[in-house]
């Protein structure tokens, strides 16, 4: 069973549920936002025992006189929507997400309301909350964050984590856009970030900045690896062995996806090109 819910701040509760996420993370955090009207965040778990615990948590909020408004989905990855259809149906609640998320879940999960950049979700209560919708693609095309300026809180989904790291891969991901959105989140100067994986992050601007610095440092290693590959270029396999030599070999399959995302960014920047055995430094 999951760790039981904890109150992060008045009108803000976290419920970690076990999910099939990437190690070292084992859980995805759901949140209850609001003191009277409540928005539930991340219907994540596909496991029956965890779903029962999740429903008990949500129904307990109702039993305490809280008004459940909807369930909010940050993006379409399985460790965020594994219980979406079931939990929404059991609670009789609509599902809210971005249009790009709705498109990727079509036929499996029905998104009732499409949220867009700049909308505000207002939740009544002893201290009303106003959560601004931020469209933050890069990890996933429809990724959304929520920012409550008065509280200084930001729900960040998979933009950062306090356990493990965030994979940017070449199908759903865009490394350049991801870095831009991290800088945007840094500029919010929030007091606390609420990630999908790990504990709440105090003073998160420093972590957003660190993520940018770390990704750019890895980009520099990729550029160096391209240089060492020479005029014949390098395959993804050979480049990952070089650029991620400091990473355990067991993680190279994941690292190779991140590597390809870096290479696509460098190609857009005019610093890498496809050819030879795979990828070369741009002339």
In short, what is this structure?
With 283 residues, the chain is α/β, with parallel strands linked by helices. The protein is built from eight helices and 15 strands. The strands form three sheets. It has a seven-stranded mixed β-sheet. A six-stranded mixed β-sheet has the order 8-9-10-11-12-13, with no helix packed on it. The protein has a two-stranded antiparallel sheet with strand order 14-15.
Word description of this protein:
- By secondary structure, this protein is an alpha/beta fold.
- The protein has eight helices and 15 strands.
- The chain has helices at residues 48-63, 78-81, 84-91, 99-105, 175-187, 205-229, 236-243, 252-268, and strands spanning 6-9, 12-18, 27-33, 37-41, 67-72, 95-98, 113-115, 120-123, 129-135, 144-148, 153-157, 192-195, 201-202, 272-275, 278-281.
- The strands form three sheets. It has a seven-stranded mixed beta sheet. A six-stranded mixed beta sheet has the order 8-9-10-11-12-13, with no helix packed on it.
- A hairpin with an 8-residue loop joins strand 9 (129-135) and strand 10.
- Helix 7 (236-243) crosses helix 8 (252-268).
- It starts with 5 loop residues before the first strand and ends with a strand.
Proportion in β-strands: 25-35%
**Secondary-structure class:** alpha/beta
Strand order of the largest sheet: 1-2-3-4-5-6-7
Instruction: State the order of secondary-structure elements, H for helix, E for strand.
Output: EEEEHEHHEHEEEEEHEEHHHEE
Termini separation: 55 Å
